[in-house]
Design brief:
The complex is a heterodimer of chains A (201) and B (221).
Chain A: E1 2-5, H1 12-21, E2 26-29, H2 32-37, E3 40-43, H3 49-58, H4 61-71, E4 76-79, H5 81-84, E5 87-90, E6 96-97, E7 102-108, E8 118-126, E9 139-144, E10 146-150, E11 156-162, E12 164-172, E13 175-178, H6 186-200
Parallel strand pairs in A: 1-2, 1-3, 3-4, 4-13, 5-7
Antiparallel strand pairs in A: 5-6, 7-10, 8-9, 8-11, 11-12, 12-13
Chain B: H1 5-14, E1 20-23, H2 36-44, E2 50-53, H3 59-67, E3 72-75, H4 77-81, H5 83-93, E4 98-107, E5 110-113, H6 123-132, E6 137-142, H7 154-163, E7 168-171, H8 177-186, E8 191-193, H9 196-200, H10 205-214
Parallel strand pairs in B: 1-2, 2-3, 3-4, 4-6, 6-7, 7-8
Antiparallel strand pairs in B: 4-5
Helix pairs in contact in B: 1-2, 8-10
The chains are: A alpha/beta (201), B alpha/beta (221).
Chain lengths: 201, 221
Protein backbone atom coordinates (compact mmCIF):
# COMPACT_ATOMS: atom_id res chain seq x y z
CA UNK A 1 0.00 0.00 0.00
CA UNK A 2 1.22 3.46 -0.96
CA UNK A 3 0.53 6.35 1.42
CA UNK A 4 -0.11 9.56 -0.51
CA UNK A 5 0.50 12.16 2.17
CA UNK A 6 -2.44 14.52 2.61
CA UNK A 7 -1.14 17.73 4.18
CA UNK A 8 -3.49 20.24 2.60
CA UNK A 9 -1.19 21.19 -0.27
CA UNK A 10 -3.33 20.17 -3.22
CA UNK A 11 -2.83 17.83 -6.12
CA UNK A 12 -3.47 14.55 -4.30
CA UNK A 13 -6.37 13.45 -6.49
CA UNK A 14 -4.38 13.53 -9.74
CA UNK A 15 -1.60 11.50 -8.20
CA UNK A 16 -4.00 8.86 -6.95
CA UNK A 17 -5.77 8.77 -10.31
CA UNK A 18 -2.48 7.93 -12.03
CA UNK A 19 -1.77 5.21 -9.45
CA UNK A 20 -5.26 3.78 -9.95
CA UNK A 21 -4.60 3.70 -13.68
CA UNK A 22 -1.46 1.66 -12.98
CA UNK A 23 -3.32 -0.63 -10.55
CA UNK A 24 -1.14 0.51 -7.66
CA UNK A 25 -3.05 0.45 -4.38
CA UNK A 26 -2.87 3.75 -2.52
CA UNK A 27 -4.51 5.73 0.20
CA UNK A 28 -4.62 9.51 0.67
CA UNK A 29 -3.86 9.99 4.33
CA UNK A 30 -2.18 11.85 7.16
CA UNK A 31 -3.04 9.19 9.71
CA UNK A 32 0.14 8.17 11.48
CA UNK A 33 -0.74 4.49 11.86
CA UNK A 34 -1.75 4.19 8.19
CA UNK A 35 1.54 5.80 7.12
CA UNK A 36 3.52 3.47 9.39
CA UNK A 37 1.76 0.44 7.88
CA UNK A 38 2.33 1.46 4.27
CA UNK A 39 5.17 0.18 2.13
CA UNK A 40 5.79 3.30 0.02
CA UNK A 41 5.55 6.99 0.94
CA UNK A 42 4.47 9.48 -1.71
CA UNK A 43 4.71 13.21 -0.95
CA UNK A 44 2.97 15.32 -3.60
CA UNK A 45 2.35 19.04 -3.26
CA UNK A 46 1.55 22.33 -4.84
CA UNK A 47 2.29 25.54 -3.02
CA UNK A 48 4.93 27.45 -1.19
CA UNK A 49 7.79 25.79 0.68
CA UNK A 50 7.14 27.51 4.01
CA UNK A 51 3.43 26.71 3.88
CA UNK A 52 4.25 23.11 3.04
CA UNK A 53 6.55 22.75 6.06
CA UNK A 54 4.01 24.50 8.27
CA UNK A 55 1.31 22.07 7.14
CA UNK A 56 3.58 19.06 7.75
CA UNK A 57 4.42 20.39 11.21
CA UNK A 58 0.77 21.03 12.07
CA UNK A 59 0.05 17.38 11.37
CA UNK A 60 3.15 16.20 13.27
CA UNK A 61 4.39 14.57 10.10
CA UNK A 62 8.01 15.79 10.02
CA UNK A 63 9.45 13.31 12.51
CA UNK A 64 7.16 10.51 11.40
CA UNK A 65 8.09 10.82 7.71
CA UNK A 66 11.77 11.18 8.56
CA UNK A 67 11.62 7.98 10.57
CA UNK A 68 9.76 6.06 7.84
CA UNK A 69 12.01 7.25 5.01
CA UNK A 70 15.41 7.79 6.62
CA UNK A 71 15.45 5.14 9.33
CA UNK A 72 13.10 2.44 8.03
CA UNK A 73 14.31 3.25 4.50
CA UNK A 74 10.89 2.93 2.89
CA UNK A 75 10.76 3.77 -0.82
CA UNK A 76 9.89 7.45 -1.15
CA UNK A 77 8.55 9.40 -4.11
CA UNK A 78 8.34 13.19 -3.93
CA UNK A 79 6.63 15.25 -6.59
CA UNK A 80 7.14 18.98 -7.22
CA UNK A 81 6.89 20.63 -3.77
CA UNK A 82 7.37 17.11 -2.43
CA UNK A 83 10.84 17.10 -4.01
CA UNK A 84 11.68 20.57 -2.74
CA UNK A 85 10.66 19.83 0.87
CA UNK A 86 13.20 17.01 1.21
CA UNK A 87 16.03 19.52 0.83
CA UNK A 88 17.70 21.24 3.79
CA UNK A 89 16.44 24.79 3.14
CA UNK A 90 13.87 26.73 1.15
CA UNK A 91 13.30 30.43 0.48
CA UNK A 92 9.64 30.59 -0.51
CA UNK A 93 8.45 33.09 0.52
CA UNK A 94 11.04 33.37 3.33
CA UNK A 95 13.97 31.23 4.43
CA UNK A 96 12.78 28.07 6.08
CA UNK A 97 14.17 24.68 7.07
CA UNK A 98 13.10 21.66 5.04
CA UNK A 99 13.05 17.94 5.84
CA UNK A 100 16.79 17.82 5.08
CA UNK A 101 16.96 14.30 3.65
CA UNK A 102 19.01 15.43 0.66
CA UNK A 103 21.81 17.96 1.03
CA UNK A 104 21.09 21.19 -0.76
CA UNK A 105 18.55 23.95 -0.97
CA UNK A 106 15.71 25.40 -3.00
CA UNK A 107 16.29 28.69 -4.77
CA UNK A 108 14.22 31.08 -6.81
CA UNK A 109 14.85 31.23 -10.53
CA UNK A 110 16.91 34.33 -11.29
CA UNK A 111 16.57 34.67 -15.03
CA UNK A 112 16.52 37.89 -16.94
CA UNK A 113 15.14 36.73 -20.27
CA UNK A 114 12.81 33.88 -19.46
CA UNK A 115 9.34 33.76 -18.04
CA UNK A 116 8.89 32.83 -14.42
CA UNK A 117 7.30 30.52 -13.30
CA UNK A 118 8.86 27.90 -15.53
CA UNK A 119 5.66 26.44 -16.85
CA UNK A 120 5.31 23.96 -19.65
CA UNK A 121 6.65 20.84 -21.30
CA UNK A 122 10.39 20.29 -21.45
CA UNK A 123 12.81 17.56 -22.44
CA UNK A 124 14.89 16.20 -19.62
CA UNK A 125 18.46 14.96 -19.64
CA UNK A 126 18.84 11.72 -17.70
CA UNK A 127 21.91 11.02 -15.51
CA UNK A 128 20.60 8.12 -13.47
CA UNK A 129 18.65 5.55 -15.43
CA UNK A 130 17.24 3.57 -12.50
CA UNK A 131 13.74 4.88 -13.07
CA UNK A 132 14.28 6.73 -16.33
CA UNK A 133 14.95 3.79 -18.59
CA UNK A 134 13.81 4.69 -22.13
CA UNK A 135 12.91 8.18 -21.00
CA UNK A 136 16.04 10.17 -21.84
CA UNK A 137 15.00 13.29 -23.73
CA UNK A 138 11.32 12.71 -23.00
CA UNK A 139 8.95 15.59 -22.30
CA UNK A 140 7.59 16.21 -18.84
CA UNK A 141 5.33 18.90 -17.47
CA UNK A 142 7.00 21.50 -15.22
CA UNK A 143 5.38 24.22 -13.20
CA UNK A 144 7.62 25.93 -10.65
CA UNK A 145 9.26 29.23 -9.69
CA UNK A 146 11.87 27.69 -7.39
CA UNK A 147 14.38 25.00 -8.19
CA UNK A 148 16.44 22.52 -6.21
CA UNK A 149 20.20 22.81 -5.94
CA UNK A 150 21.80 19.68 -4.53
CA UNK A 151 25.15 19.83 -2.77
CA UNK A 152 26.20 16.52 -4.34
CA UNK A 153 25.87 16.08 -8.08
CA UNK A 154 25.56 12.29 -7.60
CA UNK A 155 22.07 12.90 -6.18
CA UNK A 156 20.84 14.39 -9.48
CA UNK A 157 18.91 11.87 -11.57
CA UNK A 158 17.88 14.25 -14.37
CA UNK A 159 18.13 17.90 -15.35
CA UNK A 160 16.08 20.23 -17.48
CA UNK A 161 17.36 23.28 -19.28
CA UNK A 162 15.43 26.44 -18.58
CA UNK A 163 17.94 29.16 -19.25
CA UNK A 164 20.27 27.20 -17.01
CA UNK A 165 20.38 23.47 -16.30
CA UNK A 166 18.27 22.84 -13.22
CA UNK A 167 17.52 19.68 -11.30
CA UNK A 168 14.50 17.85 -12.69
CA UNK A 169 14.84 14.77 -10.52
CA UNK A 170 16.86 13.52 -7.58
CA UNK A 171 17.59 9.96 -6.57
CA UNK A 172 19.52 8.72 -3.58
CA UNK A 173 19.04 5.26 -2.12
CA UNK A 174 15.36 4.79 -1.38
CA UNK A 175 14.57 8.43 -2.18
CA UNK A 176 13.32 9.43 -5.60
CA UNK A 177 11.74 12.74 -6.48
CA UNK A 178 10.78 14.80 -9.49
CA UNK A 179 10.35 18.53 -9.94
CA UNK A 180 8.00 17.86 -12.85
CA UNK A 181 4.59 16.25 -12.51
CA UNK A 182 4.68 12.66 -13.82
CA UNK A 183 0.95 12.37 -13.15
CA UNK A 184 0.42 15.25 -15.58
CA UNK A 185 2.94 14.17 -18.18
CA UNK A 186 0.77 11.74 -20.13
CA UNK A 187 2.51 8.63 -21.52
CA UNK A 188 6.06 9.46 -20.37
CA UNK A 189 4.88 10.30 -16.86
CA UNK A 190 2.84 7.13 -16.53
CA UNK A 191 5.79 5.05 -17.73
CA UNK A 192 8.05 6.64 -15.11
CA UNK A 193 5.53 5.95 -12.34
CA UNK A 194 5.06 2.40 -13.58
CA UNK A 195 8.82 1.79 -13.45
CA UNK A 196 9.04 3.24 -9.93
CA UNK A 197 6.17 1.15 -8.59
CA UNK A 198 7.21 -2.01 -10.45
CA UNK A 199 10.52 -1.79 -8.62
CA UNK A 200 9.17 -0.68 -5.24
CA UNK A 201 5.56 -1.64 -4.59
CA UNK B 1 -16.62 24.04 -24.79
CA UNK B 2 -19.31 22.71 -27.06
CA UNK B 3 -21.13 19.48 -26.27
CA UNK B 4 -20.39 17.13 -23.40
CA UNK B 5 -17.24 18.39 -21.62
CA UNK B 6 -16.29 14.96 -20.32
CA UNK B 7 -16.22 13.43 -23.79
CA UNK B 8 -14.36 16.41 -25.19
CA UNK B 9 -11.77 16.14 -22.42
CA UNK B 10 -11.27 12.45 -23.20
CA UNK B 11 -10.64 13.24 -26.86
CA UNK B 12 -8.18 16.03 -25.98
CA UNK B 13 -6.29 13.72 -23.63
CA UNK B 14 -5.97 11.11 -26.37
CA UNK B 15 -4.81 13.72 -28.87
CA UNK B 16 -1.93 14.76 -26.62
CA UNK B 17 -3.16 18.29 -25.91
CA UNK B 18 -0.55 20.06 -23.75
CA UNK B 19 -2.99 21.55 -21.27
CA UNK B 20 -6.72 21.82 -20.72
CA UNK B 21 -8.26 25.15 -19.73
CA UNK B 22 -11.82 24.81 -18.47
CA UNK B 23 -13.70 27.96 -17.57
CA UNK B 24 -17.29 28.29 -16.46
CA UNK B 25 -17.80 31.76 -17.88
CA UNK B 26 -21.23 32.20 -16.33
CA UNK B 27 -20.43 31.17 -12.75
CA UNK B 28 -19.82 34.70 -11.45
CA UNK B 29 -22.59 36.49 -13.34
CA UNK B 30 -25.07 33.81 -12.30
CA UNK B 31 -23.79 34.15 -8.72
CA UNK B 32 -23.01 30.48 -8.28
CA UNK B 33 -20.00 28.22 -7.90
CA UNK B 34 -18.55 26.05 -10.61
CA UNK B 35 -20.03 22.53 -10.76
CA UNK B 36 -17.37 20.56 -8.90
CA UNK B 37 -18.86 17.21 -9.86
CA UNK B 38 -18.61 18.09 -13.56
CA UNK B 39 -15.08 19.43 -13.13
CA UNK B 40 -14.06 16.26 -11.31
CA UNK B 41 -15.47 14.16 -14.17
CA UNK B 42 -13.53 16.24 -16.70
CA UNK B 43 -10.31 15.95 -14.70
CA UNK B 44 -10.74 12.18 -14.45
CA UNK B 45 -10.24 11.99 -18.22
CA UNK B 46 -6.98 13.94 -18.19
CA UNK B 47 -3.36 13.01 -17.57
CA UNK B 48 -2.23 16.49 -18.47
CA UNK B 49 -2.17 19.85 -16.73
CA UNK B 50 -5.54 21.41 -16.08
CA UNK B 51 -6.48 24.99 -15.30
CA UNK B 52 -9.98 25.64 -14.00
CA UNK B 53 -11.79 28.94 -13.66
CA UNK B 54 -15.19 30.42 -12.90
CA UNK B 55 -16.65 31.97 -9.77
CA UNK B 56 -13.54 31.65 -7.60
CA UNK B 57 -13.77 33.98 -4.59
CA UNK B 58 -12.20 32.28 -1.61
CA UNK B 59 -9.19 30.18 -0.62
CA UNK B 60 -11.67 27.36 0.02
CA UNK B 61 -12.86 27.61 -3.62
CA UNK B 62 -9.26 27.16 -4.79
CA UNK B 63 -8.70 24.28 -2.42
CA UNK B 64 -11.86 22.56 -3.70
CA UNK B 65 -10.46 22.64 -7.24
CA UNK B 66 -6.93 21.58 -6.33
CA UNK B 67 -8.26 18.73 -4.23
CA UNK B 68 -9.99 17.16 -7.22
CA UNK B 69 -6.90 17.50 -9.40
CA UNK B 70 -6.69 20.99 -10.89
CA UNK B 71 -3.14 22.30 -11.26
CA UNK B 72 -3.97 25.96 -11.65
CA UNK B 73 -6.96 28.14 -11.09
CA UNK B 74 -8.00 31.00 -13.33
CA UNK B 75 -9.45 34.08 -11.68
CA UNK B 76 -10.91 37.23 -13.20
CA UNK B 77 -13.73 39.03 -11.42
CA UNK B 78 -12.27 38.59 -7.95
CA UNK B 79 -8.95 39.88 -9.30
CA UNK B 80 -10.68 43.01 -10.60
CA UNK B 81 -12.35 43.84 -7.30
CA UNK B 82 -9.95 42.48 -4.67
CA UNK B 83 -6.27 42.26 -5.51
CA UNK B 84 -5.49 41.55 -1.83
CA UNK B 85 -7.23 38.22 -2.26
CA UNK B 86 -4.94 37.42 -5.18
CA UNK B 87 -1.90 38.21 -3.01
CA UNK B 88 -3.25 35.90 -0.34
CA UNK B 89 -3.88 33.11 -2.87
CA UNK B 90 -0.34 33.45 -4.26
CA UNK B 91 1.15 33.36 -0.76
CA UNK B 92 -0.80 30.22 0.01
CA UNK B 93 -0.50 28.17 -3.16
CA UNK B 94 2.48 29.76 -4.92
CA UNK B 95 2.60 31.87 -8.08
CA UNK B 96 2.49 28.85 -10.35
CA UNK B 97 -1.02 28.00 -9.17
CA UNK B 98 -2.67 31.35 -9.78
CA UNK B 99 -3.55 32.29 -13.37
CA UNK B 100 -5.37 35.47 -14.18
CA UNK B 101 -7.82 35.85 -17.05
CA UNK B 102 -7.19 39.02 -19.00
CA UNK B 103 -10.19 39.61 -21.25
CA UNK B 104 -9.11 42.69 -23.17
CA UNK B 105 -10.85 44.80 -25.78
CA UNK B 106 -9.81 47.90 -27.64
CA UNK B 107 -11.39 51.29 -27.01
CA UNK B 108 -10.55 54.80 -28.15
CA UNK B 109 -8.83 55.24 -24.76
CA UNK B 110 -6.70 52.13 -25.16
CA UNK B 111 -7.24 48.54 -24.08
CA UNK B 112 -9.71 47.86 -21.29
CA UNK B 113 -10.73 44.80 -19.31
CA UNK B 114 -14.09 43.38 -20.30
CA UNK B 115 -16.34 42.67 -17.30
CA UNK B 116 -19.97 42.52 -16.27
CA UNK B 117 -19.59 44.82 -13.27
CA UNK B 118 -19.06 48.00 -15.29
CA UNK B 119 -15.64 48.41 -13.74
CA UNK B 120 -13.61 50.77 -15.89
CA UNK B 121 -10.15 49.21 -15.76
CA UNK B 122 -7.37 49.75 -18.23
CA UNK B 123 -5.38 46.74 -19.38
CA UNK B 124 -2.17 48.39 -18.17
CA UNK B 125 -3.43 48.98 -14.64
CA UNK B 126 -4.89 45.50 -14.36
CA UNK B 127 -1.79 43.72 -15.61
CA UNK B 128 0.47 45.84 -13.38
CA UNK B 129 -1.67 45.13 -10.30
CA UNK B 130 -1.49 41.42 -11.04
CA UNK B 131 2.28 41.55 -11.59
CA UNK B 132 2.55 43.20 -8.18
CA UNK B 133 0.52 40.31 -6.74
CA UNK B 134 3.12 37.93 -8.25
CA UNK B 135 0.60 35.86 -10.19
CA UNK B 136 1.94 32.99 -12.25
CA UNK B 137 0.28 33.34 -15.62
CA UNK B 138 -2.03 35.41 -17.77
CA UNK B 139 -4.69 33.80 -19.92
CA UNK B 140 -5.01 36.59 -22.44
CA UNK B 141 -8.23 36.63 -24.42
CA UNK B 142 -8.87 39.14 -27.16
CA UNK B 143 -12.56 39.83 -26.71
CA UNK B 144 -12.59 41.44 -30.17
CA UNK B 145 -11.22 38.30 -31.80
CA UNK B 146 -12.50 35.44 -29.63
CA UNK B 147 -14.67 33.00 -31.54
CA UNK B 148 -14.18 34.88 -34.84
CA UNK B 149 -11.60 32.42 -36.16
CA UNK B 150 -10.10 35.15 -38.32
CA UNK B 151 -6.66 35.42 -36.77
CA UNK B 152 -5.04 36.28 -33.43
CA UNK B 153 -4.87 39.78 -32.03
CA UNK B 154 -1.15 40.22 -32.70
CA UNK B 155 -1.17 43.85 -31.62
CA UNK B 156 -2.77 43.08 -28.26
CA UNK B 157 -0.54 40.09 -27.59
CA UNK B 158 2.63 42.08 -28.32
CA UNK B 159 1.32 44.90 -26.18
CA UNK B 160 0.94 42.62 -23.16
CA UNK B 161 4.22 40.77 -23.88
CA UNK B 162 5.97 44.13 -23.67
CA UNK B 163 4.69 44.97 -20.23
CA UNK B 164 5.32 41.65 -18.46
CA UNK B 165 7.57 38.60 -18.37
CA UNK B 166 4.94 36.46 -16.69
CA UNK B 167 3.94 33.59 -19.02
CA UNK B 168 0.99 34.28 -21.30
CA UNK B 169 -1.42 31.88 -22.91
CA UNK B 170 -2.66 33.80 -25.93
CA UNK B 171 -6.11 32.99 -27.11
CA UNK B 172 -8.92 34.18 -29.30
CA UNK B 173 -9.00 34.08 -33.06
CA UNK B 174 -7.27 30.92 -34.30
CA UNK B 175 -9.15 29.60 -37.33
CA UNK B 176 -6.53 28.04 -39.57
CA UNK B 177 -2.90 26.95 -39.56
CA UNK B 178 -1.70 30.25 -40.99
CA UNK B 179 -3.05 32.08 -37.97
CA UNK B 180 -0.83 29.97 -35.70
CA UNK B 181 2.20 30.55 -37.91
CA UNK B 182 1.53 34.26 -37.73
CA UNK B 183 1.07 34.18 -33.95
CA UNK B 184 4.39 32.50 -33.28
CA UNK B 185 6.36 34.42 -35.91
CA UNK B 186 5.09 37.87 -34.98
CA UNK B 187 4.99 37.57 -31.19
CA UNK B 188 7.21 36.07 -28.48
CA UNK B 189 4.33 34.23 -26.87
CA UNK B 190 5.09 30.63 -25.86
CA UNK B 191 1.62 29.18 -25.45
CA UNK B 192 -1.63 29.39 -27.36
CA UNK B 193 -5.10 28.43 -26.27
CA UNK B 194 -7.80 27.41 -28.71
CA UNK B 195 -11.30 26.06 -28.73
CA UNK B 196 -13.40 27.05 -31.72
CA UNK B 197 -10.97 25.68 -34.30
CA UNK B 198 -11.24 22.23 -32.71
CA UNK B 199 -15.01 22.36 -32.41
CA UNK B 200 -15.89 23.81 -35.79
CA UNK B 201 -13.17 22.69 -38.23
CA UNK B 202 -11.41 19.47 -39.13
CA UNK B 203 -8.15 20.61 -37.46
CA UNK B 204 -6.90 18.72 -34.42
CA UNK B 205 -4.35 20.04 -31.92
CA UNK B 206 -1.83 17.64 -33.44
CA UNK B 207 -2.30 19.12 -36.94
CA UNK B 208 -1.40 22.52 -35.61
CA UNK B 209 1.58 21.26 -33.66
CA UNK B 210 2.90 19.40 -36.71
CA UNK B 211 2.69 22.56 -38.80
CA UNK B 212 4.44 24.60 -36.12
CA UNK B 213 7.21 22.04 -35.89
CA UNK B 214 7.83 22.47 -39.62
CA UNK B 215 8.63 26.12 -39.08
CA UNK B 216 10.88 25.28 -36.11
CA UNK B 217 8.57 26.38 -33.33
CA UNK B 218 9.35 24.09 -30.37
CA UNK B 219 6.31 21.92 -29.77
CA UNK B 220 5.69 18.64 -28.01
CA UNK B 221 4.53 16.00 -30.48
Amino acid sequence: MVSIIDYGMGNVASVQKALNFLNVKSVITNDHSVIKDSSVILLPGVGSFAQGMENLNERNLVNLLTEEVMIKQKPFLGICLGMQLIMENGHEPYECKGLGWIEGEVQKFELLDLNIPHMGWNNIKVFNKKYFNNLDNSNFYFIHSYHVKTTNYQDVAATVNYGIDVVASVQKGNIFATQFHPEKSQAAGLLLLKTFFDLNA
Amino acid sequence: MVGNPVQVARVYNNRGVDELVFIDIFATTQKRKINLKLVADVIKECYMPIAIGGGIETIADINDLLKIGADKVIIKTKALVDSDFIKEAVAFYGSQCISIAVDAYKTSEGYKIFNHLDIDKSLDDYVQEMIDCKVGEFVLVSVDKDGMMNGFDIELINYVENITNIPIIASGGGGNIEHYNELFSKTNVLAVGSASIFHFTQYTPLDIKNELKKINIPVRI
